[in-house]
Design goal:
With 84 residues, the chain is α+β, with helices and mostly antiparallel strands. The protein has 2 helices and 4 strands. Helices cover 26% and strands 30% of the residues. A 4-stranded antiparallel beta sheet has the order 1-2-4-3, covered by helices on one side. It starts with 8 loop residues before the first helix and ends in a 6-residue tail after the last strand. The relative contact order is 0.22. The mean pLDDT is 88.
Length: 84
């Protein structure tokens, strides 16, 4: 996992859960403002696990699904951690 030590625990939980559900490695992108985006191809996720998938995506502040000719990609954003 990229930069695992530097990621908040909810991001790590979502990353591992997406990896298990999709049976592939999620892509993680950190933005300059501290926002983190996780995305993974979910075309192979069985229909009976979509409630679990939605629960994982809901760990982020926003989430969605994009359909392309290459498949379906689910994504979730995590807001930048608050600074004290």
């Amino acid at each position: 996992m990229p930069d695992a030590v530097d990621q908040p625990s909810d991001v790590l939980r979502a990353y591992e859960a997406l990896k298990d559900l999709a049976r592939s490695t999620p892509r993680m992108q950190s933005e300059a403002d501290g926002t983190i985006r996780l995305e993974v191809n979910v075309a192979s996720v069985p229909a009976d696990l979509w409630d679990d998938l939605l629960a994982v995506l809901d760990l982020g502040s926003t989430y969605g699904l994009a359909s392309t000719p290459d498949g379906q990609t689910a994504w979730t954003h995590f807001d930048a951690p608050a600074t004290a």
